[in-house]
Structure formats: C-alpha cells, structure tokens
C-alpha cells in the first residue's frame, strides 16, 4: 500500500520534514502544480492554506496495481469521488467532541484563534459523515489502523 505525500502551502511545524510529512511549497509553486494539471485534487483547508494531492505518483502507483491511501479533507474527498468513482471513502472520526478538542489543544501547534477555525471545519466535516462508505473511530491509533487495513482487505501498512 502506498501512502501519498500531499503538497501544502502551510509552513512546516517543528519536526516536519519536506517530502516526508508534506511537500512544502510556496504559493507560486502550488499555483504551478494546479495550472499544469498536476493536482488530482486540492482545497483550501481550515480557510487558510492550500493542500493537494499530486496526481503523478498516485496514477503511477495505481497503474502498477498498488493501492493508494489519501488522508485528505472533505472537499478533497468530494473531488476524488467525482474523478475516481470506484475509490473507497473512510470517515475517520474522533471518539467524542471533547476528545477532539483535547487532542487539538494537546498538539500545541495552534493558538486559540486557529484552533477555533479547525474546530469549525471539524463541525462541518462531522455533519458529512454519511457521504462516506464507512466510519472508523480513531480511539486508539493502532486499533484504528488495524480496522482500516482490515476494511480495505490489505496486508500491513507500508509506505513507498
Ligand atoms: N488515537 C489517538 N490517540 C491519541 N492522540 C491522538 C490520536 N489520534 C491523533 N491524536 C493526536 O491528536 C492531535 C491531532 O491529530 P492530527 O494531527 O492527526 O490532526 P487532524 O485530525 O489532522 O486535524 P487538523 O486538521 O487540525 O490537523 C495530534 O497531536 C495527534 O497526535
Ligand atoms: N484536500 C486535501 N486535504 C488535505 C491534504 N493533506 C492534508 N489535508 C487535510 O488538511 C488537514 C490539515 O492538516 P495539517 O497538517 O495542517 O494539520 C488534514 O487534517 C487533512 O484533512 C491533501 O492533500 N488534500
């Protein structure tokens, strides 16, 4: 299974590595990817930064028969559904609203205003759960990953 690397115009957080966590691009570089048709999907997430899935690596993996896993927002999922109707869509849900808030605060990477923005996005996304083929509750990471792999009918998670 191949886990695709997204591009984003957001700045790296401490510890995030270009090409591993994201392809960190300038606004102009992201524009270029979009204008050249090199994005499978892209969206402004949390009303601020652009995030998108480069098309080339995904299409190459699929052509080689390798399943691809995208971890993208609701807007991106809707775009992928429009161009790849055979794709499968999993809604990754928090165990509770309170735990979602606790985890976001605990991550410690955003101030109160940005956290509120992200919680607003979460409210919108939670309301769209029924658009997805299944829901997996992210209570324990290992358990949720096992459930995902089992639902997909695949072996253990590997990347590139
Ligand atoms: N199952 C889990 N148990 C405990 N902590 C978790 C679990 N899943 C995620 N977290 C933690 O919750 C925080 C938020 O998770 P993550 O970074 O994946 O955010 P997200 O859902 O992508 O939201 P955002 O769009 O704001 O980034 C992180 O600190 C992450 O380590
Ligand atoms: N449409 C897309 N959404 C994406 C992509 N990569 C990530 N995401 C979404 O962005 C949020 C915010 O991420 P963060 O790293 O700033 O915390 C993340 O939760 C995803 O939902 C993508 O390629 N396309």
From TrEMBL:
GO CC term, one of those recorded:
cytosol
Which Enzyme Commission number(s) are listed?
2.7.4.8
Q: Which residues form the Guanylate kinase-like domain?
A: 1-153
Read off the SMART domains from this record. Answer: GuKc
Q: Which organism is it from?
A: Quadrisphaera granulorum
Which InterPro entries did the record assign? GK/Ca_channel_bsu, Guanylate_kin-like_dom, Guanylate_kinase, Guanylate_kinase_CS, P-loop_NTPase
**In its UniProt entry, what is this protein called?**
Guanylate kinase
Protein family according to the UniProt entry = Belongs to the guanylate kinase family.
Top-level taxon: Bacteria
Pfam families documented for this protein? Guanylate_kin
Q: What does this protein do?
A: Essential for recycling GMP and indirectly, cGMP.
């Amino acid at each position: 299974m191949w886990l695709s690397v997204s591009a984003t115009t957001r700045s790296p957080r401490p510890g995030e590595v270009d090409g591993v966590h994201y392809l960190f691009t300038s606004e102009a570089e992201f524009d270029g990817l979009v204008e050249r048709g090199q994005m499978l999907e892209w969206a402004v997430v949390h009303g601020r930064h652009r995030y998108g899935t480069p098309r080339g690596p995904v299409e190459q993996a699929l052509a080689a028969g390798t399943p691809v896993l995208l971890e993208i927002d609701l807007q991106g999922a809707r775009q992928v559904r429009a161009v790849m109707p055979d794709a499968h869509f999993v809604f990754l849900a928090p165990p509770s609203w309170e735990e979602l808030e606790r985890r976001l605060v605990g991550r410690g990477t955003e101030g109160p205003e940005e956290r509120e923005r992200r919680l607003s996005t979460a409210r919108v996304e939670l309301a769209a759960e029924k658009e997805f083929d299944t829901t997996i509750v992210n209570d324990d990471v290992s358990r949720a990953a096992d459930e995902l792999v089992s639902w997909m009918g695949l072996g253990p998670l590997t990347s590139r």
